[in-house]
Design goal:
With 501 residues, this protein is of the alpha+beta class. It has 17 helices and twelve strands. The chain is 45% helix and 21% strand. The strands form three sheets. A four-stranded antiparallel sheet has the order 3-6-1-12.
């Protein structure tokens, strides 16, 4: 029979598991390690204006996901106002409205931004060229400034740099000084660029500095080389490129703040930088599940805590499969060690080992007595279950009375599994003797301890909980191990006499 379908299934599981895990790491920025820290900026915008007693409407431009920053959460505070979030080709805006307002008004908007390594440029629609008209003598001055910069340039970017430098204090000529007496620097540069056939617009950005209060937006020039590629220029220094601490707040060419029904409006910004665990920083993103971003973070916290333990079981199963198939360790029950390892996670390893040995030892003594009664299997196992419950109860009460609160965690042991373990060991004792009981009991305990060490590792707990694709990888590994038919490591000792000869 061809093994090709088998290997295709294993390969498909591997590819899906690795692919989904890499997608969550690079697209959703879920960290590989549990202790990784991420920088988060908290920015608060305060809108102040004086209402005139009439209906008022306020629109504020909002930031979007962009190079270096990803929005985590947004909040507003506007008592008595209606609030809507609008989206169009120019960007996102918040709109507050009220039927009647009088006097000083304050509206608050806050956003939490995660600093990311994503350096992809945001897709922005190129603005059309505007028809530019000048009054005399500004038309002549504008034409001469454009011609002078055009001769020293080769493309839209170099032309923009040369044009801005002509308006710097050191190189400023008579034509530039004349234009600056009538126009603001940034809108003037945009008009000159449009007149020269260069697509450009004025955008507003916020320079992030930790602990700063009552900051205002700064103006930048966005120049388009073609329909997809653009670059930012500082209108004061002609430097090209977006600084790492610049957050583009409004990039659609519209006013940052528009107020109807009020006067003396302004918006100021306060900001604060924090470091927090990366998993907590991206938790709000993980709650928005899609087909490729399938996770359990959208569940209530109680269910998340439950699944955090359940998702460790495949790790224990992989340890059992490896030890039984490749190493050759014998265990009492196939996956009984995994359940015991889960109990060790709840009880801690020393307490769990002592409790397990006590319960099994006393249970074997009582089961030995029950064997003389010649009971049927169902009745005998039921009696062992009741006995295990009684033993656990007595040990818990005694440990509490003597002040050993750790002994109370013995109740986490799976009682049915313990009962079947005692029953199986007792039958094995009667049929093959105490040596096999020690071999299988010791193998079960060793396997449980190794499974506990693997399942209780902080890195493994983090990976299994945040990357569900790992479950597919574990499935593929188990299928590969199940295909092994060679010698086990513990069986190789049979060939020791051959090596001696």
């Amino acid at each position: 029979m061809s093994r090709l379908p088998f290997y295709l299934i294993v390969g498909l599981l591997m590819v899906l598991g690795i692919g989904t895990s890499l997608h969550r790491h690079y697209q959703m920025e879920v960290p590989w390690t549990p202790g990784e820290q991420r920088q988060v900026w908290e920015v608060e915008a305060i809108v102040d204006f004086t209402a005139l007693g009439d209906p008022a409407r306020v629109e504020l431009a909002l930031p979007s996901h962009q190079r270096g920053y990803r929005i985590l959460t947004e909040n507003t505070a506007s008592p008595g106002y209606g609030l809507s979030f609008l989206q169009d080709e120019t960007g996102r805006r918040a709109q507050w409205s009220i039927r009647s307002a009088t006097g000083s008004q304050q509206l608050y908007y806050s956003v939490r931004l995660l600093v990311t390594d994503d350096q992809r440029k945001r897709q922005i629609v190129r603005p059309p060229l505007r028809d530019i008209s000048w009054e005399r003598p500004y038309d002549t001055a504008a034409a001469q400034v454009i011609e002078r910069a055009w001769m020293r340039s080769a493309d839209p970017y170099t032309f923009t740099r040369e044009l801005i430098r002509d308006f710097s204090d050191d190189l400023q000529g008579e034509n530039a000084r004349l234009l600056l007496t009538q126009f603001e620097r940034t809108p003037l540069l945009v008009r000159l660029l449009n007149q020269a056939g260069v697509h450009a617009r004025e955008v507003s950005g916020l320079l992030l500095e930790d602990g700063r209060r009552r900051q205002t937006l700064t103006s930048w020039i966005m120049v388009f080389e073609d329909e997809e590629n653009w670059a930012l220029f500082d209108p004061r220094t002609a430097e090209q490129g977006q600084p790492d601490n610049l957050l583009l707040w409004e990039a659609g060419g519209r006013a940052v703040l528009e107020v109807q029904g009020g006067t003396n409006s302004r918006v100021t910004f306060s900001m604060l930088s924090r470091s927090q665990p990366a998993a907590a920083a991206v938790r709000s993103q993980l709650a928005d599940d899609t087909l490729l971003n399938f996770s359990i973070h959208s569940l209530p916290l109680e269910e998340q805590a439950l699944f955090q333990t359940i998702l460790l079981i495949p790790i224990g199963a992989l340890v059992v499969v490896f030890l039984r198939i490749l190493v050759g360790i014998k265990t009492s029950g196939t996956f009984m060690p995994v359940l015991i390892a889960l109990a060790f996670i709840q009880t801690t390893l020393p307490t769990g080992l002592i409790g397990f040995l006590l319960v099994v030892s006393v249970g074997l003594v009582i089961r030995n007595y029950l064997s003389y009664l010649n009971l049927l299997l169902v009745a005998r196992v039921s009696a062992v279950i009741i006995t295990v419950i009684a033993i656990i109860s007595i040990f818990s009460v005694l440990s509490y009375r003597v002040g050993l609160n750790a002994g109370l965690t013995i109740t986490f042991f799976p009682m049915i599994i313990l009962a079947w373990t005692i029953e199986r060991m007792s039958i094995l004792w009667e049929e093959e003797g105490p040596k096999q009981v020690l071999i299988q009991g010791g193998g079960s305990l060793i396997t449980a301890v190794l499974a506990y060490l693997a399942m209780n590792n902080p890195w493994i707990r983090h990976i299994t909980f945040n990357f569900l694709g790992v479950q597919l990888i574990i499935m593929a590994l188990i299928l590969l191990l199940g295909n092994y038919t060679g010698y086990r490591l513990l069986e190789l000792r049979r060939f020791k006499p051959v090596t001696e000869d």
